[in-house]
Amino acid sequence: MSTKPQSESPVDAPQQGATNGQSASDIRLSGDELLLSADSDIAPTLSVVMPTLNEEGGIAQCIEWVKAALEDLQVYGEVVVADSSTDRTPEIAEENGAIVIEPDDKGYGYAYLYAFERARGDFIAMGDADCTYDFKELPKLLDMVRAGEADMAMGSRLEGEILPGSMPPLHEHVGNPLLTKFLNVFYGAGVSDAHSGMRVFSRDAWETMDCSSSGMEFASEMIMEAGAKDLEIAEKPITYHPREGEANLESFPDGWRHVRFMLVNAPGYLFSAPGFGLSVIGVLALVLAWSGIEIGSASFGIHTGIGGGLLTLAGFQLMLFGAFSTVSSDPVRGASDPFTTWFTKRISLERGATIGSVVFLAGLAYGGVLAVTWVTSGFSALPIAVADVVATVAVVVGLQMVFGSFLLGSVENSS
């Protein structure tokens, strides 16, 4: 879904002072004139949001870059600084024309959520206030969104230029490409640099994304929501600069938060797909062991059957986890595999319990036959056959199906 092109005049900013035959389109306002204060009656076209945590070394330069972008675009805008600093960052930001707000809770994501609620522009830009992102590059991103080419435009560092000292090699060559790959596979984002912090999007797109994460995983959630809700994401190469001041990012803890958030919100990949794979391998092993088929010089006996039984049980349990997660946790992208769809959409509590009971009783009946054989043989040791393993698997799968149906029913009733 992409935004419709906005109706545009040659210059969005009202032009004043045209005299002596000078047309309004000939008048260009400066960045200082185009940057609006909180009490301005003019509605901004663009709101630039920056979360800050002790960024006194870079905030002034970032605001100057925003002014240059506004002058280039000739649109009215505002800079909203969501500040949690203990240094002079808020004072410097206000001196340079920014609107400073103080979030009432902690967290990178929460700072953005708090600021976006208070931003007034039809379009919203975001970026860090440490001089790593040159806000003079905003026009090429905003132009794509205003023209309806994208719902969200992102600056790609990995497709652009990363200046020496800007990004640790581990982040550049391992962390960011790997996290981007996860997002592209799980959520169909189709981007080259999923964790670039320079983004521009329409207000409609922001409301569609419906993000809520308060931590560093907020950056991933935006892409996940956009991909899951079929929003159009476009990219332009940008230059990534060395930061001013101390870094607030913790590589491994913050990286893990992103990965964990992506996995938890994609139960189809976390549970259902591995579960289906294990189940297929397990059932195949059981069939080979039970049928006595030989492949070349390989024969499959009781040990293959036991391994197949364990894989089948583990796989079925994982598929149940995928179904429960989809129904109970409202993930960004719920599992949509055939088993989850069948179990959650077509199987009622009664039907699921019935199917599970039949499977359970079939396995139990065979167990009863074995018990009678054992008693009549004078309690002598019985040889273990593949059929015994199959019966055991049937008993356990049947129980899982019965109680899983009841659990799913209780989850649906409480939601």
Beta content: 5-15%
What composes the largest sheet? 7 strands, mixed
* Count of alpha/pi helices: 14
Total beta strand runs: 9
- Give the strand order, joined by hyphens, for the main sheet: 3-2-1-4-6-5-7
SSE topology string: HEHEHEHEHEHEHHEHHEEHHHH
Mean pLDDT: 88
Low-confidence stretches: 3-10, 15-19
Distance between the termini: 29 Å
Radius of gyration: 30 Å
Helix fraction, binned, reads 40-55%
Tell me the structural class.
alpha/beta
How is the quaternary structure best described?
A: single chain
- Please state the overall shape, judged from the principal axes of the Cα atoms: elongated
How does this structure look, described?
The chain crosses the membrane at residues 269-290, 302-324, 353-375, 381-408. Residues 336-410 form the Low-salt glycan biosynthesis hexosyltransferase Agl6 C-terminal transmembrane region domain. Residues 1-25 are annotated as: Disordered. InterPro entries: Agl6_TM_C (IPR058718), Glyco_trans_2-like (IPR001173), Glycosyltransferase_2 (IPR050256), Nucleotide-diphossugar_trans (IPR029044). The chain has helices at residues 31-34, 59-73, 89-95, 108-118, 138-146, 169-187, 203-209, 218-228, 251-264, 267-291, 302-328, 338-346, 349-376, 386-414; strands spanning 46-52, 77-83, 99-101, 123-126, 152-162, 199-202, 233-240, 294-295, 298-299. By secondary structure, it is of the alpha/beta class. The strands form two sheets. It has a seven-stranded mixed beta sheet with strand order 3-2-1-4-6-5-7, with helices on both faces. A two-stranded antiparallel sheet has the order 8-9. Helix 2 links the parallel strand 1 (46-52) and strand 2. The model is unreliable at 3-10 and 15-19 (pLDDT under 50).
